[in-house]
Amino acid sequence: MSVGIDESKRVAPESITLTLKAIEQRLDYWLPLSSEREKVSMAMRQGTLAPGKRIRPLLLLLMAQDLGGGSSTTGMLDFACAVEIIHAASLILDDMPCMDNALLRRNQPTIHCQFGEPVALLAVIALVSKAFQIISQAEGIDEKAKNSAVSELAQAIGLQGLVQGQYQDINEGHQPRSQEAIALTNHYKTSTLFCAALQMAAIATGATMTVREHLRHCSFNLGQAFQLLDDLSDGSNETGKDPHQDAGKSTWVNVFGTRKSEKQLREHLDVAYHYFAQACRHRQSTQYFVQQWFEQKLAMII
Amino acid sequence: MSVGIDESKRVAPESITLTLKAIEQRLDYWLPLSSEREKVSMAMRQGTLAPGKRIRPLLLLLMAQDLGGGSSTTGMLDFACAVEIIHAASLILDDMPCMDNALLRRNQPTIHCQFGEPVALLAVIALVSKAFQIISQAEGIDEKAKNSAVSELAQAIGLQGLVQGQYQDINEGHQPRSQEAIALTNHYKTSTLFCAALQMAAIATGATMTVREHLRHCSFNLGQAFQLLDDLSDGSNETGKDPHQDAGKSTWVNVFGTRKSEKQLREHLDVAYHYFAQACRHRQSTQYFVQQWFEQKLAMII
What we know:
Two copies of one chain form a homodimer. By secondary structure, chain A is mostly helical.
């Protein structure tokens, strides 16, 4: 059963716009452009500040609010920026010639096309280390919480996260794969960073281990839904990426077709909503935002 | 004036051997091989555990001891491992085809030659994130110190550290450069990680800001000396790297010759020793170790 949207609980678009602006201003602060000669910092800025959905930092901030923390504090914004910076680094890396060899991202030439491979690579490394530096210096968040956040984010990047996802994708993506194998790759590629975002909100607000466990289940399903949406969008002009990048790949959509994939997506969303409700019993802006967001995107592509 | 070695203050080789063994056992613990199929973890292990000098983690542990901290605690070993892992990641990156395109490192084919470019790249990212994870989980070190260590290490990697050094090296290394420009590149390429190693020892032992400032000056000079030694070794069979990798590059040795470079190296060492003595007034194992180490290496190549 898909949960309908209760109009009265819609998250005000103005509030989202303001939050997005705050995220981008803070990213701009953390990624200054020292001079036009500094190609690496230009690449870091370009890769991160080019228009994007900012879904991960938004989720982090909305969840922090739902859990009763201050989503507008500078420290919480810093956590959100760290997650977005890792996401940006992962996109630059995935686009590299030896990976997906993509030419277009966010409607612009990919970073290695603009700046060359060495600069793109150095920008990835600098972004990853910057994300950890930002967390370690986040204002007004206690020391233990910052260390837990470093640990969560590191886990989402490494062999149990983005690195594993990208490895499986380049290694097995063009071979026939089982439903479970595709789901596992999507888990590493997408769910782990969603998980880090929600966990970091929980860590910063001092949520209980039970809440963190609910959020873990929630983000695993949210990540699957998000990856299915991404696969369903392949070939549409709305992605800002090389069209039909997934042609010949064993994605859910290519193997099981659009209708089954959409059904699967909605099932994952329903499970995610269940855990959202378990984790935040009083405020549910995150869940309502996610519902709105997916309905809007699905309406555009299906 | 070069400081001679007081034989009575030599660091016992057995003590260094034991420390090296402890570092390598702890690296082995942090970089487990899950299965032969896991190419990325194989590359991470190979890049880090292949025989190396381990000079950075050794300096960290010796300095922690000189500053009165327990160098044999697991947490201190973890800090040392994090620094060595970043060093290993930087070597894999610098060897990549789009960087130095090196074939040989530590007498073995470079990581991208063994595992291919995508795996080498993913191993670099996984190693960088693992280093931060290790610091955040280091046993028995207080939370604030762990955050400071994350911040120091991140700074040593990014635009003010290894990334900047590698960028300058590939961009300007093959053009004529001034003495100052070469020293600046060496600062970013080498001194910054030495600096992070000594700062992390100081952070973990709760050293004063004055001590930390002395160690900063010390490591800047130590890094220059180390890079000069590396340049002087180019072409010797002892490096385990592609011989004459620096041919045509504007290194100190290529521009000013062997004799002037050795003189410059000894001047940097003398300044480093001065600051070692300022930082640790009671115990000076680190300084004696460095003296022994450099004399031994210089005797082999000059």
